[in-house]
Structures are given as structure tokens and as C-alpha cells.
Amino acid sequence: MQLCRFNDDRLGLIRGDEVIDVTAALKVLPPCSYPLPKHDLLIAHLDTVRAEIEQLIQGAPLRHALTDVLLLSPVANPGKVVAAPVNYAKHLAEARDDQAIHHQNQIGEIQRVGLFLKASSSVVGASEGLRIARPDRRNDHEIELVAVIGKAGRNIPAAQALEHVAGYCVGLDMTVRGPEERSMRKSPDGYTVLGPWLTTADEVADVGTLDLLIEVNGEVRQRANTRDLIIGVAGLIEFASSFYTLQPGDILMTGTPEGVSQVFPGDRMVAQISGLGRMTVDIDD
Ligand code: MN
User: Domain for residue 266, yes or no?
Assistant: First the structure.
């Protein structure tokens, strides 16, 4: 199933080039009150919502053309955004070779430097666009495969890790280059783009063989395959959960391949991963 959040927080089911409005399925979510849970309510109850959607589509819910809707982040309230710093060998070489990328920061192997966190306030959907936070700096796109955690866990072994994934989407880990810590440079508003929608894990046969592609203004900048990840999705979940409990709705950004490059106000990025969809993201003027 491919589910989007669109327009005014509507829930949509993707069918070809249409979005079926299945917002009514959200009525199965339990009421929640202050203090809010540490997980995303929809992702935590995804199985129940999916069953309700199957019922709903027997009727004749409203349909929209995909081109007519505004796509929001498929996860509304991620508790945390966990990210892999340098997780493709060719990007490690590129980052070490280019002073404009490394800024005298030591670029270590992921096994040694570990993961980092991005502010959840940086998350947006494809249609929300983003504004360059520091126009005085180099700002880069990083296309990444994103796994959305579906089931809570701590110390999850790699062999069971994929059972904790609700689904996958395309991610852009936007980055201000410079000497500061990654968590600061990668957390401005809009610097985590998720979309175009959530593809549930049962629809992804092998997450280790997906093609990634991003074009900026029609020019290919990054083209890679997840088979070249240094630590794959299961290993990243094992690694992350050895430090903290993963919750439903937590976002795992798996790292970017080689080809990162600068973007400017007015640029249009088109990012796609095989089976997960293609999203167009504009950088505000
Ligand atoms: Mn990244």
C-alpha cells in the first residue's frame, strides 16, 4: 500500500496517477491527549488503519489527480530522525577529497563515528518546498533511502530488524556545508524532505537493490543503488537501537551516495527510488 498525507492533513491511497481520499480511516486511531505519545499515532496503528482503508475503498471515496494535490511528509510526527553520515564508499572518498565538503571535519568510517540526529522540526513533504537557510554557504542535496520504523524496539538484532520497518520513502538530507556539527547543519526548517508517500514494507521485495536518482534542473547529479550501502537497513537498525529505543514513526535516513552538489534558490530537484515513487521539490526563490 502507498499512503500519502496531502492538502489539509488528508490521508490518501495512491492508485496509479490518482489519490483516493481515505481520511475517514483515521477514525480508528485512539484518542490522545497531553502529554502526546513519543511515537507517530498513524504509524503506530498502521495495521488497523490499513484494514479500515480496505473497507473504505469498497465504497466510492473521493479521488483526485496526483498532480492536483499538495504532498506533505508521509509521517506527520516523527519522534526522531536518525541519520547515517557517510554510508557509501564512493561518497566517503568524495567527502575526504573535497575541502568544500569536509571543512577540516574528520570524515570517519560509519562504524567508528556512528549515527547522528536531525531535528524533527526539519521534516517537510515534497510539495512544501524549502528555503536555503544559509545563502552565504554551500547548500547540498543528499538523496537517501528512508526507512520508517513501525514497531518499537531496543537492541534489535539485524536478523529481526526489517520486522520493525513500517515502510520506506525517498528522503533528501539537505545540508549546509561548514565546520559545525552535522546535527546543526542538517536541521534547518525544510532540510529533511520525505516523500512522495510511504510505501509499506510488504511492497518492497528487496530493500538492498533499489536504484536512487536525483536530477537538479533536469541534470543527473546522483545515481546509485542501495546494494552499495556500507551498512544496510537491517544493520543500521541494529546499530541505532543499541543506543536508543526506536519508536513507530522514527525516521532512519540511510546515507547518501556520491555526487552531492550545491543547490540554489529557484532550483527544482526531482528525486526517485525504484518502487518508492518520484518527487519534485522546489527550492524557494
Ligand atoms: Mn546524509
Answer: yes
**Region 14-23 average pLDDT:** 97
What is the pTM for the complete model shown?
Answer: 0.97
Q: Identify whether residues 19 and 153 lie together within a single domain.
A: no
182 Cα: distance to centroid of ligand 1 (angstroms): 9
- In tens, the pLDDT along 166-224 reads 999 999 999 999 999 999 999 999 999 999 999 999 999 999 999 999 999 999 999 99
Ligand 1 centroid – CA 54 distance (Å):
36
- DSSP collapsed to 3 states, 121-163: HHEEEHHHCECCCCCCCCEEECEEEEEEECCCECCCCHHHHHH
Find residue 213's DSSP bridge partners: 223, 272
Domain span holding position 39: 2-68
Q: Residue 87 sits in a domain of what CATH number?
A: 3.90.850.10
Residue 105: pLDDT over 90: no
Residue 141 CA, ligand 1 centroid: distance in Å? 9
Whether residue 148 sits in one domain with residue 113: yes
Residue 84 Cα to ligand 1 midpoint, Å, equals: 6
Does residue 106 have a pLDDT over 80?
no
- How many Cβ atoms from other residues are within 10 Å of residue 271's Cβ? 28
Domain boundary among 68, 91, 115: 68
